Amino acid sequence: MVKKKNHYLDNKRFEEVIKCYQVEPDEYQDELVTLLDILITNILKSFKFKVDPDDAKQECFMLVFKTLKNFKPGNGSAFNYFTTVIVNNLKLIYTKDKKYHKKIQAYRDSILGPNMNVTRDFVDPDDPSSFSLSSSVSG
Question: Across residues 11-39, what is the average pLDDT?
Answer without folding.
Answer: 92
